[in-house]
Amino acid sequence: MNNQSRPRKKSPFWLFFLVIVMSGFSLYIILGLQDSNRIYAEVRQELSNSVYSGGVGKIEFPGTTGSLNIPSWEVFRSGQIWSLVSSDTPLPSSFIPDNLVDVAPPHGDNALPMKIQSTINTPLTALLSSAEAAGYPLMLSSAYRSIADQQSLYTAFVETKGQAAADRYVANPGQSEHHTGLAVDLSDISDSCSLNSDRCSLGNDSSAWLATYAHLYGFTIRYPEGKQPITGISYEPWHYRYVGIPLATKLYESELTLDEALTQMHPAFAR
Prior knowledge:
By secondary structure, the chain is α+β, with helices and mostly antiparallel strands. The protein has one domain (57-269): Muramoyl-pentapeptide Carboxypeptidase, domain 2 (2-Layer Sandwich), CATH 3.30.1380. The chain is 40% helix and 14% strand. It has helices spanning 12-48, 121-133, 147-161, 163-169, 191-195, 204-213, 228-231, 245-254, 258-265; strands at residues 57-60, 67-70, 100-102, 115-117, 138-142, 183-188, 219-223, 236-242.
């Protein structure tokens, strides 16, 4: 008698059970993937409708239609077109724009070169050409100013006008938009301004034209009337800052200052 065990045959029931289990597991995987794809599609659709579409974010402006996309956080870096320069957000003491060029339009102190960032050269020329065509020939009274130059200006103002007046009308070194090369002071064209920028001035009609049309060329009035508590600077109808047409238009339509807009657009600017 042979006592060695013979292999047992697998029951057809177990084979059937195994097929059912494997089929169910496969179906579970397929349905799970389909469900994941559905959820992913829903999330993607939700994101496309959120504040993060069209770049890294967007901002709604009160009293305006549509929204403004933030293409990249890089636009807020020092010297970029949406950078904020103020007493709360000063520039580094070593900051110097790396793309300065001599201005082509007429300017004050014409015996000396005046510089701006190359970024604003074309829109600035277009703005001045349109102003002249409208009957308001303009020139630059000031543009790029180094931090050292700002220190000299501030010190001279303190000596002649006093500390309180200097703090009211002149930015401290490192806190002036002129350091960026993106800001200009505009004046009615005149021989006296050409010879000495201290004699430059902007008339009411010219300032009214600029306030109405400058945004079409990407410039915003940086220190509007009645906004000193926000900007920290008294009303300067001659001081314009380049921010690009989309943002300049939104600021014009909403009557917000750059400070107010950037506080909404980038939480780092919130005081």
